[in-house]
């Protein structure tokens, strides 16, 4: 049997980490995988997470199975965090999932059950796992334009022109905030047009929100997701807790499925529970319980929000410093887009050869499409990166 297996394509983001670790150069800079790092390059456990874990260890008196849908405290708290009452709670079904990836996988499985021939529209570019999972499930994918290579901002006209060709019953995958890999995001006014266009097409939105709190703030980053949820009769939302709670390896996420009327929520919820059972029975619990504890305890929640805000403002500061340094070196404003992008990433628009030159000559590791993780920078490395970008001719 196993002799029939072929080599599978490696994840280009994850394999970059392996190459970085093997590089002996002391001044190397890791701008690859999307993990938050402080100025020392360390990814700390957040204070509120540590405290919730301490309390959990002290108080948890059983490890018996949780519900198929996961911990209800977590689900209710996450529905609140993401949607904040944008739709009637009775229309929202939810399951805990292994990370945001698990939520996307379950969303696609749900679509496959309900509408197997629906086409899934994905931004070009997008997080590579989107296309990979859609293809793996044998579903049909189509790209919509998203990034303007010239301005390195959103190609809004291209995006809307493509979304106008979406067929009724198709699914449009949207990044709720902090677009990965580009860092370019629609304004609130542009979101209104996107919503109107997708709605006129009769399509169903699937929102992937993996960086709430990393862009403009917790509520600001959820505003588009809330507007989408409020505007459509049906909507799917895949949310990740990996980044904003810093619990990457705990595999914590949620899939919400919003039905057009509360009377349908029972069947929708039952189907989500069924999908959890088919794939792994019960979702991971530890991270979900920690998140539930933090969000429902006012003091823990306040401390979490304060630390998340420090992280967010730190990344914004790095963006500004890098844009300023590039402005100084080039005597132009053509890299100002870095300060306008939001989230962990910016695609700077360098060619694969230029990205490779920066790796070979300057030990700077960014993804081949010229996506860099802003959190991988600090005051010492910003001038090195800016000089390398200019030297590479990007
Ligand atoms: N969606 C996007 C756009 C992402 O960048 C990520 C990666 O962090 C995820 C979803 C899912 O992440 P995880 O499965 O680690 O929660
Ligand atoms: O885009 C990133 O870097 C993060 C982390 O298979 C990640 O989303 C990367 C690849 C992957 C899972 C997570």
UniProtKB/TrEMBL annotation:
Organism of provenance: Ketogulonicigenium vulgare (strain WSH-001)
The protein's enzyme class: transferase
Record's GO cellular component terms: cytosol
Protein name, per record: Aminotransferase, classes I and II superfamily protein
Keywords of this entry: Aminotransferase, Pyridoxal phosphate, Transferase
Keyword Transferase on entry: yes
One function term, GO molecular function aspect: identical protein binding
Matches recorded under InterPro entries: Aminotransferase_I/II_large, Asp_trans, PyrdxlP-dep_Trfase, PyrdxlP-dep_Trfase_major, PyrdxlP-dep_Trfase_small
Quaternary structure (record): Homodimer.
Signal peptide: none
